[in-house]
User: Fold this.
Amino acid sequence: MYLTPLTWSEWEAHYQLLGYTTFSPAWPLHDASVAEQNNKHPNSELAELTLSEILQYYRDFIAALDEKPILIGHSMGGLIAQILLSEGIVAGGVAINSAPPQGVISVDPDFLRANQPHIDPFLSVSKPTQLTFEQFQFGFVNNMLLEDQRRAYASYAVPESRRVGRATLTSAAKVEAAVVRPPLLLVSGGGDHTIPASLSYSNFLKYRNSQSVTDYRQFPERNHWTLLQEDWETVASYIDEWVEVNKLPMILAEGEQQLMEE
Assistant:
């Protein structure tokens, strides 16, 4: 949410060097430039976008591929990865700083403050939300240099549908935790305000009765900007090792597919 596939540029280069074919398709109504999306605010079409529509978009995209991809998703994309993994249409899933599935909640003050722009019931879903710099600073890039925070906001932040953010409380965000599925890795950041590590761990515990591989890893100092935060390679390298350990399609096999999802 609030971002575009630009956030995956470094990760795509990383995995392409390892032999993967990568895809980072934009959500519906998120394929224009950052400037164009901000200039269109408030976009009435964007206000109507739902999580169910985004999920169907990715189902259709994956169905057109030659093989099942390994799906890496961040934030709401992490939830999408969990849902599609439970449906058996991907070869493996990594959920980074994942939005919670239905039934997993948090009352952490940082979570409530960071997510207020889209979960506040007094704010209408008929208009999309556009984060102020201060909101982006708290929710995404806390504990970074001010100049880096401003650069990230100007280069990547876009408006978002409140309907998508609120969907985590609905059946659209339901994950069948007990279903037999490919391996799942949940990654959290100890400095993340938007998805606190405690919430990610609660998400992990949702799978405690699952017979399928479910792993959890917390990186203590990382915030919600972990995809582009300094030393993001440490997170990517851990994921690489996890893929190998779980015998997912070989990293160096030419043509294997990696789908990045925000």
